[in-house]
Specification:
With 122 residues, this protein is α+β, with helices and mostly antiparallel strands. 35% of the residues lie in helices and 10% in strands.
Length: 122
């Protein structure tokens, strides 16, 4: 979904796109699993549970309490062709506690739903 929205297959271009649309909020990329993890406040799964149900068909999950997510070292900030399976910071965390805004993430997902499914209301 991210690559489709960014209209690219290049990791660096997708990273720049996410940096812009999520206003610098931190994102981890797992290139092996082709997944992006936008780091949001811990309350998002509880407060956005209805939207999360709508997002599941797109393979968008809100990871919540009890989830363990491996985090790359802080200095791993770009896709490495020599280590194409290693996670990296697509958008590095600018400071502790600085997270993506839930509404920005929801808008990104809504745009992805619209582009991938053609839903007019997304």
């Amino acid at each position: 979904m991210v690559l489709a929205l960014a209209d690219t297959t290049t990791p660096a271009d997708a990273d720049d796109f996410l940096d812009q649309v999520l206003d610098g909020g931190p994102v981890i990329c797992d290139p092996c699993g082709r997944r992006y993890y936008a780091l949001v406040p811990g309350s998002m799964p509880r407060l956005w549970h209805q939207a999360a149900d709508d997002w599941r068909p797109l393979r968008v999950e809100l990871l919540g309490h009890g989830t363990v997510l491996g985090v790359p070292r802080l200095n791993v900030v770009e896709f490495g062709p020599l280590t194409p399976h290693a996670s990296y910071w697509s958008v590095p965390m600018s400071s502790a506690g600085m997270l993506c805004q839930p509404l920005d993430v929801a808008r990104l997902i809504a745009a992805g739903m619209h582009q991938l499914t053609g839903e007019p209301d997304a």
